[in-house]
Amino acid sequence: MSIALVSSQMCYSQVDSLSTQNRLNQYGKLVERKSLNAENRNGILVFESKDQEYRFWFDARVQIDGQVFSRNTYNDIGDGASIRRARFAVKANVTKNWYGELDLDFANGSLDLNDAYIAYDFLNGFSARAGNFKERFSMSQTASSRYLNFMERATVVTAFAPSRHIGVETAYNGKYFTTSAGIFFQEVGNAETRAFVEENSKTYGRDEGISATGKFVYQPFGDNPDKGIHIGYALSYRNPKTSEDPATYNSIRYNTRTVSSINRKKYLDTDAITDYSHQILQNIELAGFYKGLGVQGEYIFNTTYRKNGKENLNFSGFYIQTTYMVFGGKQFYNKSEGEFSEPYKGKKWGDVEAAFRYDYINLNDKDVYGGSASVYTPGINFYTAKNVKFQLNYSIVNHDRYANGKGKLFVGNDAAGNPTKDPAQVVDAKGKAGEDYNILGLRCEIDF
After folding, report:
1. How confident is the model over 335-352, as a mean pLDDT?
2. 273-301: string of b/e by CB count within 10 Å (b at 16+)?
3. pLDDT (tens digit, 9 = 90+) per residue, 127-161?
């Protein structure tokens, strides 16, 4: 009887405990409780409290790419397919002011940390954040990859525009402008990058290096949903970082792949530029939209300062693109971020967007020959009704004779008619040398 009584009391106690309003966390501490509403918001699962103080949601993305290349090339290029991005993020407003984000990428079996930061919104136009996130320098670079009009960003953006770094930043969004300023340190990178940082610190006692980036954007039409103009200027000072190989510290290298993640060759490559002091990046942005029509362009100028009496180097490039929603959709410009986002579709089944971009980069100056390239890319984007997107791109790529991937790639024929990697030995006429090819690419994407 006593055992039965104790058992009955224990059961009653558990039921009574579950029926109370008190709850304990995994550490035994009494916590506040709030019920959450679950909603499907354009295909994204969102949990939100009734008072809208707390909001939590998942943000996942999968992009599957395939590309084929023309065959009349000096260097063989293999066709292929890849998981370009496999992203999983959790995001939350823990109050109306405090926001946090953690974003991981699992593409092709490797794990990378993307965004990891905390932010505070003063609810009066001012905001601040700290952690690992994209520097506000280039509107193409800061735009989410899910909303890119082309499969890859322009070469000048991938070569020069800073992406994610650990740092702190403040921003203000006014009625007709937005501005930001931040101090940044290392990129998180991969295991090799972190090993370089630790070796530079342990063995040589080197500072990690600091970058300062500021941006101002004038938006004369404010938040008008049908038309807008974007005029931006960004400036970034950047000194040597310990994320570089200790053996090449105080040097800088600029390189990029040419509008492809499948062709792994980096034709454009300055190799290590020694006696590096610091660099100044400048960016001029012009963009606008009217209903379904969008136009966007950037000019990025890089000045690399060298020590020991060596001349400064000047590199630059630009792109210009235009897009148009064919079936009545409208472009969407995110005013607070100063970038284009997902367009509105014109039909119940979705919409089609026609796009064209020309981009150019020049990594040749003084005694450095990293090559130059121009790329023409027409494209078609098909948006389904909800969260599925298909992109078809055809790129015409033209490299100059100096785009030989640090001397590893053929760029023309010598006097004997044999392929050569040495630009000085190329006998092809001006404009005929260099690796040229075409790319046909397809992307399938889903966001959820």
Report:
1. 97
2. beebebbebbbebebbbebbebbbbbbbb
3. 999 999 999 999 999 999 999 999 999 999 999 99
**Amino acid type, 67:** Q
Interacting residues of 332 by C-beta distance below 8 A, sequence separation 6+:
225, 340, 341, 342, 343, 344
pTM of the model: 0.91
DSSP string, 164-199: EEEEEEEEEE-SSEEEEEEEE------HHHHHHHHH
Question: How buried is 412 (Cβ within 10 angstroms: 0-12 exposed, 13-18 middle, 19+ buried)?
Answer: buried
Please give the full DSSP string across 424-444, using - where no structure is assigned: GG--SPTTT-S-EEEEEEEEE
**Torsion sign over Cα 162, 164, 168, 169:** positive
Are the C-beta atoms of 351 and 325 separated by less than 8 Å?
yes
Burial 338-365 (b: 16+ CB within 10 A, else e): bbbebbebbeeebbbbebebbbbbbbbb
**Cα 199 to chain centroid, rounded:** 28
User: In this structure, what token pair is assigned to residue 411?
Assistant: 């760029």
What are the residues whose beta carbons fall under 8 Å from the beta carbon of 141, sequence distance 6 or more? 134, 153, 157, 161, 162, 163
Cβ atoms of residues 87 and 101 within 8 Å = no
Give residues with Cβ within 8 angstroms of 247, minimum separation 6.
none
What DSSP state is assigned to residue 43?
T
